[in-house]
Amino acid sequence: MTEEHRHLRDALARYATGIAVATCSPPGAASVGITINSFTSVSLEPPLVLWCIEKTASVYKAFNASDHYAVNILGAHQVDVSQRFAAQDRHVIAAGEAEAWKTGAPILPGCLAYLDCKVENRYPAGDHDILVGRVVKYAHADNASPLLYYRSDYRAGPKVD
């Protein structure tokens, strides 16, 4: 990483984000997940969300082959889940470790919120792709604190009543 890239990364790290795990079940392959913080809502009508995946990510081919994904938004109690799916060799989701909803994408237990999505569009964007998904099912928990990422470290957001 160049010094200029490091400084840009440091500046971007001043923006606190939520943490989620994007998951998919590509045809003929194991279900996988990857920790993300490049997630945002796009539209309520139609219900669209997006996130970005690096083209060099070990699970890039799996997400590129899949017509669906789920976004599992993590609570403050799930730092271990975030770290697991951020690790280079721990992306595979074993049978029985998650449930499947409408699209078949893995829904991880104990999360703050869940969005089950069909891929609507994919857009190349530099060294990443942007995946826009149409939300086909969702759910959320009450009375939980979100897991946040700020200045390259985990933080707990305020508990919502």
What does this entry look like structurally?
This protein has 161 residues and is mainly beta. The chain contains three helices and twelve strands. It has helices at 3-12, 60-65, 79-86; strands at 17-18, 20-24, 32-36, 39-44, 47-54, 68-73, 99-100, 106-107, 113-125, 128-140, 147-150, 153-156. The strands form three sheets. It has a seven-stranded antiparallel beta sheet. Strands 1-11-12 form a three-stranded antiparallel beta sheet, with no helix packed on it. A two-stranded antiparallel ribbon has the order 7-8. A hairpin with a 7-residue loop joins strand 2 and strand 3. It starts with a helix and ends in a 5-residue tail after the last strand.
List the main descriptive attributes of the protein structure presented here.
mainly beta; 161 residues; 12 strands; seven-stranded antiparallel beta sheet; three-stranded antiparallel beta sheet
Secondary structural class: mainly beta
Question: What's the β-strand tally?
Answer: 12
Biggest sheet features: 7 strands, antiparallel
Major sheet: order of its strands? 3-2-6-9-10-5-4
Order of helices and strands: HEEEEEHEHEEEEEE
Radius of gyration over C-alpha positions, nearest whole angstrom: 15 Å
Q: Please, what is the average pLDDT? A: 94
Overall 3D form: globular
The helical percent reads 10-25%
Low-confidence stretches: none
**SS summary, helix count:** 3
Quote the beta fraction: 35-45%
N- and C-termini, Cα separation? 42 Å
